[in-house]
Each structure stands twice: as structure tokens, then as C-alpha cells.
Amino acid sequence: MDLQTGPNIFLQANAPGLGIFMQIISLMGLPEFYLVVIPMILWCYDKTLGLRLLILISVSAAFNVMLKLLFHAPRPYWISPEVKAFASEPSFGMPSAAAQVSLSFLGFIGTWFKKTWVWIICIVLIFLVAIARMYLGVHFLADILTGWFFALIVLLLFLRYEKPVAAWGLQKPIHIRILLALCASGLVILLSHMVLFSYGTWQVPADWFALAYAQTTVSINPLSLHEVLMTAGIMFGALTGSIISAEYIPYCVDGTISQKAIRYLVGIVVLGCFWIALSALTKSPDLAGSVMTYFRAVLAGLWVTAGAPFLFCKIGLSKRTENSIV
Asked: Which residues pair with 251 in a beta bridge?
């Protein structure tokens, strides 16, 4: 048994019939999962926690997509017919985005609540996500470990510097803060292009395309910048929306259970409607598709942090407060 694919083959051979369960656990690796969960926290529970989680996840995800291009490593089912593909992934595999983002998210949750039972749940979920990604055949053990390594770096840096950076930013005029957010987003896109340029004449091996398609009948496209544009866009939208909200929409998350439920339902339905409606326009391989991918992501970040809170205040689902969210 190959040492590289050994853990994948072992899991699939010794735990048959768990494909659907592992796919459900694996949802924690999707950006859509966090666009559903974090708004619930931001709009209905604790806006400070929700905002910090959204910014942390967007930064961690943006870092991950750049690292994937840098390592340009295959996924197990791309190189081994012995690994069954229970899912298809078009991008490079290392580091695992699901492992990195879930550890960033759950690690921050654990440090926020500082309760043993919360930490136990978070750690169990982190390991379940890792096992699920290997079971599905989309990540090597090395991808998982690399994802955890970079997640810890991002999380520790965020915990150390988030408050000082936020305090420094609050001293700047609002247009400067928004410009800095745009520069950070643009830097992610620029660095990703530079990594692709550094490949020179290197191309994705033809057998990766062939084996991946044979396993799933879905083509891979690891050189696409779709994920880069999406994560960079969400990061810019979230940062800009949080800046606008702190200045002009100091809303309150308090309210009855029914108010919070309606608030969340309204906000998530609007988010889902434009996310799905604009989805087809992001599929275009030309410049228009890239622009729309970025625009849709920016719009999502803006809606979650500023648009929805503004609407809630206008229709009486939330009250204004003088407390800033940053």
C-alpha cells in the first residue's frame, strides 16, 4: 500500500457505507456553510463574535487559496485509481481548505467561550472534518496536517493582532479604511497571479485530468482563479461592510426568539436569492465571469455585515444602539 494514499484506502476499506455521512461533515469546508452559520451569530447572537469570525474565516480562506496555487499538489483520486472519489474538487489539494478553515473557525469558538465542553465539541468536529476529507478521497493526510499548521498560524496571529490592528484602523478616516480593505483584497489576487506566473512552462499533468474525470465524470480546473476571486471578494465585502456598519448602522442583536428567527430568515433568503441568481454569471470563462465572481462575493460580504442590519433596523426587526461592533 502506498504510504501517500494508505490512510485514504484504509478509511474507505474499513468504514464502508459512510459516504453520505462524510459528505455532510465535509460541508464545513464550503464557503456557503459559513455564509449560512456566521450570519446567524452576527445577526441574532453576538455581533462582535460574528464579525470576528467572518473576517477570520475570509482571511484564512484567502490565504489557503494562495497556498494551494503555491504548492500545486494533486488530490488522491487524481493520481490513484485505488482511492474511490466520493466527491469531486476542481482545485489543487494542499493545504486542505476544509481542515484549515474549520480549525480557524472552531479554534476561535473555543477561545471565545473558554469552556471545556465547547473545546471538546470543537476538537471532535475538527478531527471529523479531517477524517471526512480523507475518506471522500479528496485529501491526503499531508494536506490535512498542512492545513492545520497554517490554520494555527492564522489563528494565533489573529488573536494577537486583531485588536491592535482594529484600534489602529479606527484612527483612520472611513474612506482610508475602505481603501485599505480593497488593497488587502487586491493583494490576494495579485499574489495569486504571481504564483501562476512563476509556474513558467509547467502544466497540470494530463493523467491528473484523465483519472479525475474517469472517477467522477467532472473535469478539474486547478489553475482557475475562481476561488481566489471569491475569497478575496468576501474579505473585501466583509471588511467594508463592517466599517460602514460600525459608523452608520450600530444595530442591536437583542430581541425575542421570533424576532431573531424572522430576522435570520429574511436575511438568509435575500442572501441566498442573489447568490443563486448571480451563480450562472460566474460560470463564464472570460473576464466577465471573473468580474461577476468577485462582485457576487463582495455583495455577499456587504449584505451580511451592513445590508441586512440596515434592513432589520428599517423594518423594525432590530433596534439601533450606540455601541460599535468593532
From this structure: 320
